[in-house]
Structure formats: C-alpha cells, structure tokens
Amino acid sequence: PPPATNTTARLAALRDSMRAHSAHAYIVPSTD
Fold first, then answer.
1. Whole-angstrom Cα distance, residue 11 to residue 5?
2. Backbone angles phi, psi at 24, to 5 degrees
3. How far apart are CA 13 and CA 16, in angstroms?
4. How crowded is the C-beta side of 14, counted as CA atoms within 13 Å?
5. C-alpha distance from residue 28 to each of 5, 25, 31 (Å)
6. What is the pLDDT of residue 24?
7. Of the residues 8, 12, 18, 22, which has the maximum number of CB atoms within 10 A of its CB?
C-alpha cells in the first residue's frame, strides 16, 4: 500500500476556503 500522507494542513486550508465561501459540504463523486 502507498505510504500514509499527513493531510492536516490541506484539510485546514480547505475548511478555511469553504468557510470563506459559505460552503457547508463538498461532494466527492464515486468515480474519483
């Protein structure tokens, strides 16, 4: 399996961006 990736900083940036745009959810399609 691939090595684990620390996504803490990326997730925090995503949350900040979503908050700035008043987004409450992000849908990831099953084909991703």
1. 12
2. -110, -10
3. 5
4. 9
5. 19, 10, 8
6. 95
7. 18
Token digits of residue 31: 């084909």
Are residues 26 and 14 in contact, defined by beta-carbon separation less than 8 angstroms? yes
DSSP 1-32: -PPP---HHHHHHHHHHHHHTT-------TT-
Residue carrying structure tokens 């997730």: 11
Q: Which residues contact 13 (CB under 8 A, 6 or more apart)?
A: none
Q: Model confidence over 1-32: pLDDT tens digits? A: 889 999 999 999 999 999 999 999 989 899 85
